[in-house]
Amino acid sequence: MSTATIVSLPDQSTARIPKVNFLTKENGLLSWLLTGDHKRIATLYLISITFFFFIGGALAALIRLQLLTPGAELMATDTYDKVFSMHGLIMVFFFLVPSVPATIGNFVIPIMVGAKDLALPKINLLSWYLYVIAGIMMIYTMSVGGVDTGWTFTTPLSTHYLNTHVVSAGLAVFVAGFSSIFTGLNFIVTIHKMRCPGMTWFRLPLFVWSNYAASVLMVLGTPVLAITLVLVVLERTLGIGVFDPAKGGDPLLFQHLFWFYSHPAVYIMILPGFGVISEVVSTFSRKRVFGYTAVAFSSVAIAVFGFFVWAHHMFIMGISNYSALVFSLLTMLVAVPSAIKIYNWAFTLYKGSITFETPMLYALGFMGLFTIGGLTGVFLGSTGTDIHLTETYFVVAHFHFVMVGGMLMSFLSGIHFWWPKWTGRMYPEKISQFAAVVTYIGFNLTFFPQFILGMLGMPRRYASYPPEFQVLNVFSTAGATVLGVGYLLPLLYLTWSLKYGAIAGENPWQATGLEWQIQSPPLTENFAETPIMDHEAYDYDWLERKQASEVASV
Amino acid sequence: MNYISPVLWQFISRWLHDFPLFPPEASTIAPQADALFFFMVLVSLVGLTVVVLLIVGFSLLYHKRRHPHAVQIEGSTLLEATWTIIPLGLFLIIFVWGALVYFRIYTPPANAMNIYVVGKQWMWKVEHPGGQHEIDALHVPTGRAVQLTIISQDVFHSFSIPAFRVKREAIPGRYTTVWFQATRPGTYHLFCTQYCGTNHSHMTGDIVVMTPEDYRKWLQGSTSGASLAQDGERLFASLSCNACHNTQPDARGPNLVGVYGSQLTLSSGQTVTVDDAFLRQTILNPSQGATQGYATIMPTYQGQISEEGVIALVEYIKNLSTDYRLQQTLNTTEIPPEIEGKATGKASAGSGEVKP
Amino acid sequence: MSDSTTIANAAVAEAGHPHHGEHPPFQRHHFESVVQQFDAANFAMWLFLLTEVMFFGGLFMSYLIMRNWYYPAFVEGSHFLSIFWGTSNTAVLITSSFTVAMGVWCAETRRKKGLILCLILTFILGLMFLGIKGIEWHAEWVEYHVPGLHFSAETFLNPASAPEVYKEYHDKPLSLGMANKTELYFFLYFAMTGMHALHMVVGIGILAYIIFRAWAGAYTTGHVTFVENFGLYWHFVDIIWIFLYPLLYLISRHQ
Predict the structure, then answer these.
(1) Which of A85, B230, B250, C53 is the most buried (most CB within 10 A)?
(2) Which chain B residues are Cβ-neighbours of A323 within 8 angstroms?
């Protein structure tokens, strides 16, 4: 028992991938394009968001290359403006928002609650198609010349002062929004109505809780973004609107409506990541998550408070000092549940039996980076320091620590964690551990210098900058190169593992979730017969007893 | 160090030579904002250290090799309460402290010298009360509170002076204010930090802080001959504002002398305090600010006066303390051509108006 | 809701015991029981309506703010909306809500003819609503009140130029600045009624499909979820109008 791994694979000489599984059940392109199976839709999503991630990543590489030198040498400023706008739009709406929920969530939530599928399989497929349509519109926008509004569509700039493709970009985001609404709606219905016998709310894995909270935000926030974009498009096409100060409208109203969605959107992006971390930390320390209830409710608290902090994006925009006060206070309150989660995860390790497979490495990386990302958020939530730091690279660094350091780390953690379940094969452990470490180092090198740049006052969205900021920017670009390697490696070895990976068997991680008690890859209907949940979540004693009895019966 | 390529070495040393890690503190508010900043850095470091220590410590102590069997623990209300209440307390301290700094930065002292700033794609235009105009530069003296009244002519901009730790959004159609008191002479960066279109990154400039004597010399050296209020006076005459606002007993418009800062009852029955924003709004869109007892016959000047023109008029009305200056405009017959150009030529779509 | 649940239960009872693998034909494979299927679909519909509330919420918010700022423009703008057509449309829509509710009842009690009749009536009333809306929009077009495309503030600068409205309300001329703000009123009017009409069009499209299916005998075999959810949607669209009508037509009209 003194081995440093918990991986337990079946005997490779005899093990086979089960003949019947959701991947092999039906063949042909149509069986994929018309599927109602949540696991197949998750696979479709995984392919499409990976595609957009690498487009967004290529744009990020261009940004970093441009910023290698103080002048606008690589690209003209208008090209640079388009590049960072497309980077933001693609990464936010086509990668981060759907990343964990639409792929991992889609794949495991129905299994975790003990259901055969999401409650509304057709709607699930519809949301993937909406995503694809939106993606095509975005690619169209990019190929006919792009858009340079930034991802925020700030009026009146976007409505009256730009002649790029704002309308098609806005409509793409509008459609993508409905894709995300339907995903969220589907999750909520599934979690409410599809739980198997014995699966009470407090026996749900924490991944389900955090996705539930994120879904509530999707369902309530995204429509507001949708109507806001409709108004922007109408204002742009008809030349009249509620956001144009020259006609009596108010550009600040746009800010309010936009951030009413876009701040909760940050939690839409990060909450599912929290869920992944809960699963992974528990599994690799062989312990129930410390303070299950507190972690579950902190997700809900983030969702609730998350709706009432949007104006902290507008502290310097001439909202009244007193409303700034209220929103600052609420921002401080929303920071607390995140702190609770971090410490609960840390204490999950206490008296555990810890191993460091790749998902765990990513998860530990997440905890460090998210702590920094969260704490720097407090700098921006505090009104006094926000004045100096907002709209600078400090903000850029902050949200990349949360979004990339937090969300992307947890996404990769989750992908590695559920990869054996998804494909039936293991990824290569050594090289993936290496990739995790490379990602971690590259990430810090890329984004930590940006905090200092922000403190120095370097504004975001600048194509050129004063020469004294060059050194830190060079560090950042160097780090981005390392980070790029860290992201390309998983793409390569995960693809490799599809054919050559070791057969994983049912439960390579000795994890307790319902998804680990069925074959890998799962059957189309997940369970041969309806499971009955007779134990708490993360009950490792139950797992031991179960395995002991299986051995005995054999 | 000879074995390092001399070219590379030069390159590196040039980098290292010009490599700030912390911005200069050149205003009275900067040390105060920085004190809070460093307090937060401290809190963050402590928080981060605790998290890292816990993770590393537990990882070493409870590695599977050393600790093959996990001990199940449900949780601990006491511990959870601890890491709820301590962060909450710290965050609340940061909140209160931050709010104090915020109110200080956005509440100008009464005796502050007012300078107008107009943002437009992609330049900053600065109008000093003495009539000095600047583009992409702002000269200010040390030891004197300076208030900026900022407006944008087109899209959102943001007037940011990192060395002073102040920043304020320039919003189309409404005045915003920020103030500072510079402490150290020197030249500092001025950035537009709100993305404002193609040449956003070129919308930069210099903040030149001077000693009071140098500043006085600069003021004298760069005056355009007429103060901002005098510009306004000429505009007042050329737009025939004085046809109605002429202090005569039978005047069709209300008397503007001393109106700035006073309480005014509008025809709608509302009482308002006359400030910059109100004057601007009433010039551009008179119907909403009609004084009680006067017919709403004043035409709208929306789209007819540039933001600079409005600023000149506001500054003029602000400084009207006696009838005398107003009477003078009635005698002005010829209109200086450059003012006329300013009054009509620069009208742009971006000029909006203020909301109540 | 409780009615329909019992009926769904009845359907389960009739269709046999689902646990023995004998599902009623309309039960999707991934549900354990018809009740669960019905509950899920119903719950999803309510959630969807919640997103719709948020969607319209953005418009209502904009309306409230703009109305607060440009009160006179909004009052005089509303004088150009026809109370007669507005009220008729409200009546039409409320009646259609009644017919659709009757339709759901017919489906639950398995009255095929009644169901088809009610649905067709709803269909006609829906078209009538759109027709009346078209008449109103046409009137705005004639009066140059279509913002962006066909707009002039003349009738607000010089109210006597629109004698019919002037006769009734004796509007004072608005100043140029305020008169221009009526364009915002009409923009919001068109955005809100247009978005509402779009929902009506979608609803009528779905309704046509339901009528087609009902004709073929669907919905009267105990599985009424789709009709019931459509009814919820239709009521929701109705309720949006119940808010739009007073906000756009009635409030402060006589001030």
Answers:
(1) A85
(2) none
Query: What's the CA gap between A177 and A225, in Å, rounded?
Result: 8
Same domain, C19 and C78: no
Q: Are residues C16 and C57 in the same domain?
A: no
Q: Are C69 and C134 in contact (CB under 8 A)?
A: no
Tell me, yes or no, whether C206 and C145 share the same domain.
yes
Query: Closest partner residue to A355 among B47, B64, B176, by Cβ?
Result: B64
**Structural domain containing residue C207:** 33-250
Judge if C81 and C157 occupy the same domain.
yes
**Domains (ranges, CATH) in chain A?**
29-553 (1.20.210.10)
Which of C52, C62, C151 is facing A242, going by the closest CB pair?
C62
Domain assignment present for residue C255? The answer is no
Query: For residue A248, which of C196, C147, B235 has the smallest C-alpha distance?
Result: C147
Give the residues across from B118 on adjacent strands: B125, B151
The token pair at A203 is 């026996």
* Alpha-carbon span C193 to C199, nearest angstrom: 10
List the one residue out of C81, C51, C49 whose CA is nearest residue C182.
C81
Claim to verify: residue C70 and residue C191 sit in the same structural domain: yes
Task: Say if CB A184 and CB A101 are below 8 A apart.
Answer: yes
Tell whether C100 is covered by a domain.
Answer: yes
Half-sphere exposure of B309 (CA within 13 A, CB side): 26
Of A246, A321, A391, the CB nearest to B350: A246
Determine the Cα angle at B352 with ends B127 and B241, to 5°. 70
Residue C70 and residue C16 in one domain: no
A154 Cβ contact list (under 8 Å, min separation 6): A251, A254, A255, B155, B156, B194, B195
CB atoms within 10 A of CB A314: 18
- Between vectors from CA A257 to CA A254 and to CA A261, what angle results, nearest 5°? 135
Chain C residues whose CB is inside 8 A of the B287 CB are 174-178
Measured distance CA(B107)–CA(B274) in Å, rounded:
18
If we measure between CA atoms, which residue out of B318, B312, B314 comes closest to residue B336? Answer: B312
Q: Which two tokens stand for residue A390?
A: 């907002």
* Residue C142: exposure state from Cβ atoms within 10 A (0-12, 13-18, ≥19): exposed
- Phi then psi for residue B259, to 5 deg, are -75, -25
Q: Of all helices (H) and strands (E), which one includes residue C242?
A: helix C225-245
Tell me the two tokens of residue C240: 């949006």
Number of separate domains in chain C: 2
Pair (C130, C220) in one structural domain: yes
Backbone angles phi, psi at B322, to 5 degrees: -135, 165
Beta bridge partners of B124: B119
Name the amino acid, one letter, at A527. F
Neighbours of chain C (3+ CB pairs under 8 A): A, B
Distance CA A502, CA B302 (A): 74
CA distance A340 to B81: 9
Say yes or no: C94 and C125 in one domain: yes
ipTM of the complex: 0.91
Distance CA(C205)–CA(C191), nearest Å, equals: 21
Whether C121 is covered by a domain: the verdict is yes
> Inter-chain contact B287–C174, Cβ cutoff 8 Å?
yes
Chain C nearest-CA distance from A234, in A, is 9
CB contact under 8 A, C40 and A119: yes
pLDDT in tens, chain B (356 residues): 455 566 567 667 767 776 788 999 999 999 999 999 999 999 999 999 999 999 999 999 999 999 888 898 888 899 999 999 999 999 999 999 999 999 999 999 989 999 999 999 989 999 998 888 899 999 999 999 999 999 998 899 999 999 999 999 999 888 999 999 999 999 999 999 999 999 999 999 999 999 999 999 999 888 777 888 888 888 888 888 888 887 777 778 888 888 888 888 887 777 888 888 888 888 887 877 778 878 777 887 877 888 888 888 888 888 887 776 666 666 654 444 444 434 443 333 333 333 33
